[in-house]
């Protein structure tokens, strides 16, 4: 057994970017020593962005038989999509003509989500609040199921996200939703058909109609389709067998070459047979 190699001589520059002014990120520079594969001492420095953990939820509307997502403007996405355009790659941010680009370049399609920035609240309590604030539904904690906890970014942040699943219907609708205006949120609910969800997975990319989508959305939808089953028997607790995704695509003609050719009857039949995911 190989001996454990430890990181030693750790130190941090906590204000190398100037006075700390952000409530959301804290940039620091970490200095450390470590042994490489040849047992040679390596001195390294690494820039880290300390961030708060977050929560997200895949919402499924049982009456509409649709997934509920949120659409909103993300400044960071807007900046990145514009600064990486060929005409801007050698320019400073101050040299880019921002006003000539449409705001929609910063629009994203995401899961209902939020930061764990409320003291004393657990991840499930935090996502319950987000469901109400962003989508307008009030749900009991027992209805919210944990899917997975994972690291969002391993290169700079390493913040974690708790991903949940929850079913809602119109009886739980309490307010309009749309986010908190005092925090600058302007959120639009988007209802996604199961067919559209399958197409996203079949196409194998994270964008829909030019709108940017984070990997967490793709992962959540993949989980949803995998855990769902083509049966009207709700009591059937079996998890889909290997190859179920191919069966789904074959049922609705979701392969890239034939998805658009699926008939109305096939689509209607698929919608009737689909049942939501089983509890994890």
TrEMBL record:
PROSITE patterns found in the cross-reference section: NUDIX
E.C. code: 3.6.1.45
GO annotation, biological process: nucleoside phosphate metabolic process; ribose phosphate metabolic process
Enzyme class, UniProt record, top EC level: hydrolase
Compartments reported by the entry: Cytoplasm
Gene Ontology cellular component terms for the protein in this record: cytoplasm
InterPro entries documented for this protein: NDP_pyrophosphatase, NUDIX_hydrolase-like_dom_sf, NUDIX_hydrolase_dom
Annotated GO MF terms: metal ion binding; UDP-sugar diphosphatase activity
CDD domains, sorted: NUDIX_UGPPase_Nudt14 (cd18887)
Catalysed reaction equations from the record: UDP-sugar + H2O = UMP + alpha-D-aldose 1-phosphate
Region (Disordered): 251-280
Necessary cofactors: Mg(2+)
UniProt subunit comment: Homodimer.
Protein name: Uridine diphosphate glucose pyrophosphatase NUDT14
Species for this entry: Ditylenchus dipsaci
């Amino acid at each position: 057994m190989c001996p454990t190699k430890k990181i030693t001589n750790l130190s941090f520059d906590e204000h190398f970017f100037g006075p700390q002014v952000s409530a959301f990120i804290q940039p620091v520079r970490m200095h450390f020593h470590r042994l490489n594969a040849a047992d040679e001492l390596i001195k390294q420095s690494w820039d880290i962005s300390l961030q708060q953990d977050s929560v997200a939820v895949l919402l499924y509307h049982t009456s509409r038989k649709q997934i509920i997502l949120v659409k909103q403007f993300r400044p960071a996405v807007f900046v990145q999509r514009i600064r990486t355009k060929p005409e801007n790659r050698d320019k400073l941010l101050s040299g880019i003509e921002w006003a000539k680009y449409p705001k929609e370049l910063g629009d994203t399609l995401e899961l209902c989500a939020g930061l764990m920035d409320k003291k004393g609240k657990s991840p499930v309590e935090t996502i319950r609040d987000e469901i109400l604030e962003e989508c307008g539904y009030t749900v009991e904690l027992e209805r919210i199921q944990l899917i997975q906890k994972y690291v969002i970014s391993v290169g700079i942040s390493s913040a974690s996200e708790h991903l949940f699943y929850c079913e809602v219907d119109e009886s739980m609708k309490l307010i309009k939703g749309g986010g908190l205006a005092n925090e600058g949120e302007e959120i639009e609910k988007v209802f996604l058909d199961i067919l559209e969800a399958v197409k996203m997975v079949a196409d194998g990319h994270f964008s829909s109609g030019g709108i940017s989508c984070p990997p967490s959305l793709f992962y959540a939808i993949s989980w949803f389709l995998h855990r769902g089953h083509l049966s009207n028997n709700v009591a059937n607790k079996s998890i889909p067998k290997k190859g179920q995704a191919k069966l789904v695509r074959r049922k609705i003609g979701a392969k890239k070459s034939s998805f658009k050719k699926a008939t109305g009857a096939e689509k209607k039949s698929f919608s009737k047979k689909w049942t939501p995911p089983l509890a994890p």
